[in-house]
Amino acid sequence: MASSEEEISGKGGIESILPVLPPIALAIVGEPTNMQPAIAEKGLAVLDVTATGRAGHAAHNEGENAIYKAINDITWFQDYRFERESPLLGAVKMSVTQISAGTQHNVIPDRCTFVVDVRSNELYSNEELFAEIKKHIICDVKVRSFRLKSSHIDINHPFVQRAIRLGRIPFGSPTLSDQALMPFTSVKIGPGHSLRSHTANEYITIQEISEAFTLYEEILNGLIIKQKNIP
After folding, report:
1. CA–CA gap between residue 188 and residue 5 (Å, rounded)
2. Domain CATH code at residue 202
């Protein structure tokens, strides 16, 4: 299957073929990790937040400024820290990334909207984080999707242990991939460097691909994974 849906979190990619796949013991996600095993990956929830005020003329003491309402919640998103921090992925990260308000300079804005990028660790579900956020802010908030979940594979998994014996170093990945949509055990390991992603002239070398084939073969050759309880 060839698809570009991963980059836009669309449903025409891996999700569209999950129902026809056979039982899967382990998925290998070939995202660029410099062939180090990413044994945890952050999830993503995007929030649309709306503050509502009352319009008025800026020259008079009237109206209710929606921007000022939004500022309080934006400050909360900046300062709040969730209790559970992952040794692999660190803390949950919330970033206000877009904001829009106002129609012209002399009108008190009655509406201010902003977008929050929430990166979850494997210790929280996106649903848990959303419920906690709603307890703390006064603006109206909606989540675009809960489906891009954080993922994790046990460091004692046979694949990971074999990679370690071959000199690979497990780590937690802050970037998102199709792994978030896989309802089975998976690990992210692939050729190339993640920092090249989404940059001008993004590339991968032939040597990196060749070395990846060799390492995949060394890890997988003779690898035995128990077939119990495979979804």
Report:
1. 18
2. 3.40.630.10
* Secondary structure (3-state) at 74: helix
Domain boundary among 99, 116, 145: 145
* pLDDT (tens digit per residue) in 175-221: 888 888 888 999 999 999 988 887 888 899 999 999 999 999 999 99
Write the pLDDT tens digit of every residue in 37-46: 999 999 999 9
35 and 49 in a single domain? The answer is no
Range list of H helices, the chain = 14-17, 66-79, 126-136, 158-165, 206-220
pTM: 0.81
Check: CB of residue 171 under 8 Å from CB of residue 165. Answer: no
Q: What is the pLDDT of residues 72-114, one digit of tens each?
A: 999 999 999 999 999 999 999 999 999 999 999 999 999 999 9
Residue carrying the six token digits 């990196």: 208
Residues 135, 141, 142, 148: what is their CA dihedral angle, to the nearest 10 degrees?
A: -60
Q: Residue 89: which domain range?
A: 44-145
Structure tokens, 60: 């008079």
Hey, what are 13's tokens?
A: 């990619």
Other beta carbons less than 10 A from residue 35's beta carbon: 20
CB atoms inside a 10 Å sphere around CB 213: 10
